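Discussion board: Methods & Data

I've been asked by a reviewer to show the raw model output for two of the constructs in my manuscript, not just the figures. I'm not sure how much to include, so I'm pasting the format here to get opinions. Each protein appears as its amino acid sequence followed by a line of discrete structure tokens. Is this the kind of thing reviewers expect to see in a supplement, or should I convert it first? Here is construct A:
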Amino acid sequence: MKFTVLLVGAAFALSGCGAIGSLASGASGPFSGGGLRGSGTEIDGVRFRTRVQSSKENRRDFTTVTRNAGRDLSGAVEAGRVQAVEYCLRQVGGSEILWSQGPDRPIEQIAIGEGGDLVLTGTCISR
């Protein structure tokens, strides 16, 4: 009897092990930006972390920040675009975006910040 109780308790304890890691990695959770470190997106074998932040006044307005964009600028731009589309799908149910500073610009016109981060901004316009 004690062994069964111990076994069931251990199963419950181990079942939640992935919960803390998934919040930090952006796999799921209550954070709109995909977790504490952002959501991971793999483009051409390079993994990028992108956080999406929205305006408090209008949830349709957003900014994506993709870390270490210098490794592959075109991949970082695509990772930011993918996360923006996912954000708009969750927020307004559609993927149309009006870009202020977006992936629709020529690659040579897209700037990388001092910290090596790529910033894209736009507004979800679906519905």
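Construct B, same format:
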Amino acid sequence: MKKTLRNAAMAFCAAGSVLLTSCGTDQPATETTEPTGMTLQDSAAMSTDSARMGKPQGVEVGGARMTPDKDIVANAANSKDHTTLVAAVQAAGLAETLKGAGPYTVFAPSNAAFNNLPNGAVAGLMRPESKEKLQGVLKYHVIPSRIMAADLRDGQQLTTVNGEKVKVSVKDGKVMINNATVTIPDVVSSNGITHVIDQVLLPPAE
């Protein structure tokens, strides 16, 4: 990655996860993976048990229940761990897009992930004059289709809405997207899927 673009991206990497353009068709399921934490089987069992007990279904993220009746943006707005991402999406003017029909798959950096960026990077990307750069960073976190953790394979490459690719690595139950680890998989919303990640993804230099 060229130093100039890397600095620009890092200088505005502060945005977070998502983006847009028209959605594509769902990708077929391939092999099942079990990301860090709860396995896919455990998650499915808990959802079934919750339904039987009359409890709300969904995954807890940032102290809030992410439920499939809400869109991606509405769910993210309830997470105290994704306030930076939500602010970035709004600053980039992508909120309405991500509230659309989709489907989208969003790799959503946590607040801690944004905090790992160089000092001043997030503030710089949030400036009105950096809106285009911010959009580019966020779009690099969005796939225009619905992809569950079970669809992710080691060595797979996914094309983001900005046309660039991210690489999937699966080893010993850990799923990574480029250099970021998936910490919470399969957060289902009405218009797609969110996978929480622990690093901000940097688009490649042109």
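Answer (T.O., handling editor elsewhere):
This is acceptable in a supplement if you add a one-line summary per construct. For B, something like: The first strand starts at residue 59 and ends at 61.
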